[in-house]
Write a structure and sequence with these properties.
The structure is a single chain. With about 300 residues, the protein is α/β, with parallel strands linked by helices. It folds into two domains: about 170 residues, 3-Layer(aba) Sandwich (Rossmann fold), CATH 3.40.50; about 120 residues, Orthogonal Bundle (N-(1-d-carboxylethyl)-l-norvaline Dehydrogenase, domain 2), CATH 1.10.1040.10. The chain contains ten helices and eleven strands. The protein has a seven-stranded mixed sheet with strand order 2-1-5-6-7-10-11, with helices on both faces. α1 links the parallel β1 and β2. α5 runs antiparallel to α6, α5 runs parallel beside α8 and α9 packs across α10. The model has no long low-confidence stretch (mean pLDDT about 95). Bound molecules: pantoate (PAF). Pantoate (PAF) binds next to α5.
């Protein structure tokens, strides 16, 4: 089993390309799939300049087993999971890897027999023409969100493969607090940098302190109501650390707005608003940010 496990990567975005680079350089068995495959080069902080193999296109005869990683934008996940229903085997381990929340429920509905993993990463990259530039090291956390019909031994083996393929990766038995911490980091940094057209470091200005605390307080009230175990001081410390560590980067949402692309706001502040409404809670600051980004996207 050890040498045969295959990692299937869906899409050719920045994170997918970084994982493909690692698989190439660490000699892991993998295939990358893309709708319109391109020849891309990665300028990698560890491995240098790597020309990636051109991805394959999925067709009706494709069968995906072992591990399928979906490093896609959150809003693309539902459609892609629906399209893959004909090709993903029930024994396959499905890994959701994106900013924001709201896709786990959909994956469980569409794939009740599969083992489903949620992952988050702080590794950073951006694309410039045909080049993916790896701009920052950062840890990755993953964990089970749905147990499928696979043996414990197989899951353990798949997890050791994920630890090799992902960046500074660690399996957590309790993944929800990590997912909510990342949700909070994105709920602060992404809309504020997009609205004010800032690099992440711009949010360390004293004028943002009150607003950041308001965003986090609303998320904490919601998390508490959902029995997710996170606390204000750790969350604030994590947000400030990410702002500092990524001070020279432009967030993914700032880049999406600048390039006229759809953002992940519906799965970040939008998700917080929808979950709060379901629980009868008010989250006015997060709602304002959701509406402001929708306006910038041209939806309102
Ligand atoms: O979406 C992003 O840009 C990143 O998740 C983060 C951590 C906010 C850093 O820019």
């Amino acid at each position: 089993m050890a040498t045969k496990t295959k990692i299937n990567l869906i899409g050719q975005g920045c994170i997918s390309s970084l994982i493909a680079t690692r698989c190439c350089c660490e000699k892991l068995r993998f295939t990358q799939f893309a709708r319109t495959p391109e020849s891309l080069t990665v300028e990698h902080l560890t491995y240098g300049k790597i020309h990636l193999p051109i991805p394959q296109q999925l067709n009706q005869d494709t069968r995906l087993d072992d591990i399928v990683i979906l490093p896609l934008k959150a809003y693309a996940i539902t459609t892609v999971l629906q399209q893959l229903q004909a090709v993903i085997e029930p024994t396959c381990c499905i890994v959701l890897l994106h900013n924001g929340l709201g896709t786990i429920e959909i994956a469980k509905q569409l794939y009740p027999n599969n083992h489903i993993v949620a992952a988050i990463t702080n590794t950073a990259a951006f694309r410039s023409n045909k080049t993916i530039k790896h701009t920052g090291h950062g840890s990755t956390y993953f964990g089970t969100v749905h147990s499928g019909n696979i043996s414990t031994a197989t899951i353990e083996h798949h997890y050791s493969m994920l630890e090799k393929a992902l960046y500074d990766a660690q399996m957590l038995t309790e993944i929800l607090p990590a997912l909510w911490t990342k949700l909070a980091v994105n709920a602060v940094i992404n809309p504020l940098t997009a609205i004010h057209d800032l690099q992440n470091g711009g949010l360390s200005a004293p004028s943002y302190v009150k607003l950041i605390n308001q965003i986090l307080s609303e998320i904490l009230t919601l998390a508490k109501a959902k029995q997710i175990n996170i606390d204000h001081s750790t969350l604030l410390k994590t947000v400030n650390t990410v702002i500092y560590d990524t001070q020279d980067n432009f967030s993914s949402m700032q880049q999406d707005i600048e390039h006229g692309r759809r953002t992940e706001i519906d799965h970040i502040n939008g998700y917080i608003v929808q979950q709060a409404e379901k629980m009868g809670l008010q989250v006015p600051t997060n709602k304002r940010l959701w509406l402001d980004i929708q306006k910038l996207e041209g939806h309102l």
